[in-house]
User: What shape does this take?
Amino acid sequence: MQRVHVSKVAELVLSEITGFWDRLLFGVRSWFRDEYYVPIGLDELHDWLKIWKLQELPKLAYTSETFDCDDFGAYFKAWLTLKSHKNCVGEAIGEIIFPEGKALHEWNIVLVKHGSLEIVFVEPQIGQVFKEHTYDYFYYNLKWVIW
Assistant: This one.
């Protein structure tokens, strides 16, 4: 099982941050709680996401301020870590930009081994994984992480 030092994980995540001030503030805002991280295979992540969508999501209901994006992100992080036995997932915090405007948002960021080490995003509210910062006309602007 490959272990990746926190400095490499932080470097991969930082490469996803755009803008001078956001890159500068990333180190101040972000919180990495482990020294080493174990990546998950992309196929394994997709397998877990199928289970998430079939077994977990139907039990969860979005409730403004009570169980909203940050709660989905925290729950998915804990769930995937418990199920996969890998600390491969963190909480991504930033903003989501959509045709009608933008809002603060939390989703998940996952360290995957897919040939090389990569960072992918997961929108836990729908169980969707994506590599680019956009999905379904939404742009995810990453600012910092809690890992």
About this structure: The beta strands are 4-5, 36-37, 40-41, 89-98, 101-114, 116-123, 128-130, 134-135, 138-146. The chain has a mean pLDDT of 95. The chain is about 35% helix and 35% strand.
